[in-house]
């Protein structure tokens, strides 16, 4: 027998503290996790997507650039491909959303039924200027949305859309 | 637009602009040899109509798949459906299908027949470019109809 004997009283109080500690931790841990959850949440949707478009190849004439990102709808994940009309305005790169502000068709640059130097919506003949401004007298009620753009290693990155700032 | 609650609400509000209905007709063949082909056709039609919808969202309503088994196939069905869609205010009704049978009544209804391309083994990029090619074939059919009035 060693000198520091554990009395019955001590043994019971150690065990109770231990067990009680675990129980308290079991209750507190989820609470703490829930409290912190909003801070730890990932911010989706605001990310930039890398495209295969070289910055150097972008000219004054708008071209279609596809970009694909993952969209999560509840438990359903899907790769969504979006398109942007991209051109250079001086040194600034402009990326416009192709979605018509009337009812959501895809607009086309210099469409065969449309005018030169304009975007044209084949659904209801909506017209937009090169910077996305809607031309009065045609169905669209607002200018085309704009995408934020970034550059990475010479390639174009497309970010979230924002209301048109060019018109 | 699709036949769902959200799009139909918008459709109701903008009825005068959405004058075209697209009806995919899918044969559900349950015989051992044809079942897979039938599935590929359904795949292809869903992918293609989704692509068409994306391009012309504001002008057309893509109806849910109208499917029928081989014994239920009936020439009256699309004709009746077309009448009802016209009554509902659609000026143009297109039936899009991979089933050759419907080309028999081509003079009576607008049938767009396309051979099913098996998309299941393709990667995304190839799939997209194939659908784009198919779309390019379909667009003139729409634009001629649309420009007739």
UniProtKB/TrEMBL annotation, chain A:
Keyword match Transmembrane: yes
Top-rank lineage group of the source organism: Bacteria
Transmembrane intervals: 12-32
Domain Rieske: start-end pairs: 55-158
InterPro entries: Rieske_2Fe-2S, Rieske_2Fe-2S_sf, Rieske_Fe-S_prot, TAT_signal
Pfam families: Rieske
Keywords, sorted A to Z: 2Fe-2S, Disulfide bond, Iron, Iron-sulfur, Membrane, Metal-binding, Transmembrane, Transmembrane helix
Protein's name according to its UniProt entry: Menaquinol-cytochrome C reductase
Automatic annotation (TrEMBL), chain B:
InterPro entries tied to this protein: DUF2487
Domain of life (superkingdom): Bacteria
Record's protein name: DUF2487 domain-containing protein
Organism of derivation: Lysinibacillus contaminans
């Amino acid at each position: 027998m060693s000198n520091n004997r554990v009395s019955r009283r001590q043994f019971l109080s150690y065990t109770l503290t231990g067990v009680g500690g675990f129980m308290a931790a079991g209750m507190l841990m989820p609470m703490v996790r829930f409290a912190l959850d909003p801070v730890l949440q990932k911010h989706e949707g605001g990310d930039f997507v890398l495209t295969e478009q070289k910055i150097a190849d972008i000219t004054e004439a708008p071209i279609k650039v596809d970009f694909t990102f993952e969209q999560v709808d509840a438990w359903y994940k899907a790769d969504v491909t979006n398109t942007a009309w991209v051109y250079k305005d001086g040194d600034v790169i402009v990326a416009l959303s192709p979605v018509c502000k009337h009812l959501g068709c895809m607009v086309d640059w210099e469409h065969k039924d449309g005018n030169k130097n304009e975007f044209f919506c084949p659904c209801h003949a909506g017209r937009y200027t090169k910077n996305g401004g809607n031309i009065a007298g045609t169905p669209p009620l607002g200018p085309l949305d704009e995408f934020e753009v970034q550059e990475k290693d010479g390639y174009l990155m497309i970010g979230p859309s924002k209301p048109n700032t060019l018109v | 637009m699709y036949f769902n609650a959200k799009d139909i609400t918008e459709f109701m509000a903008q009825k005068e602009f959405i004058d075209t209905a697209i009806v995919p007709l899918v044969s559900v063949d349950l015989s051992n040899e044809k079942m897979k082909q039938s599935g590929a056709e359904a795949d292809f039609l869903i992918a293609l109509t989704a692509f068409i919808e994306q391009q012309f969202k504001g002008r057309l309503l893509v109806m849910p798949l109208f499917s029928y088994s081989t014994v239920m196939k009936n020439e009256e069905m699309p004709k009746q459906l077309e009448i009802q869609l016209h009554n509902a205010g659609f000026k143009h009704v297109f039936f899009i299908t991979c089933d050759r049978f419907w080309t028999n009544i081509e003079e009576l209804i607008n049938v767009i027949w396309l051979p099913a391309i098996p998309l299941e083994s393709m990667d995304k990029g190839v799939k997209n470019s194939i659908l784009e090619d198919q779309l390019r074939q379909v667009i003139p059919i729409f634009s001629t109809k649309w420009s007739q009035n």
